Structure formats: structure tokens, C-alpha cells
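Entry:
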Amino acid sequence: MAEFADQMQGAQRLAWADNAIKLAVDLTVAAINRVNIQGTTEEQANQIRSVMAVVFPEAVTLVREARSGLQ
């Protein structure tokens, strides 16, 4: 019975990690899609970089927490 409980707990941790990673990806995609990109190619790249500077650290934190939960 204890082995079954451990397997279930492992499956729950894996599901949580998968959901956190999916959330990080969805968050990043949604943020970039909301940007009204205009101007030259360089200006557009700078606009996307600005969004990523805010969003990426949050996404990394979600993924890091998900990975630490698996160990």
C-alpha cells in the first residue's frame, strides 16, 4: 500500500510539473501576442526583448519550481 501511495504522489508531482511548464509557455506566448509590434525590425526586436525581460524570469521560476518538485 505504501508503494502505491508513493507512486500516486510521484504521479501528482509529475502532473504539477507538467502544468507549471505549460503555464510558463502559455504565459510567455500570451505576453508576446499582446504586444503591438510596430516600427523597424530593430524597434520590433526591442519591443519583444522588453516583454521577455519581464516575462522570462517568471517563466523560469515556474519551471525551476516544477523541476525541484520532481527531485
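Residues 17 and 67 are 7 Å apart (CA to CA).
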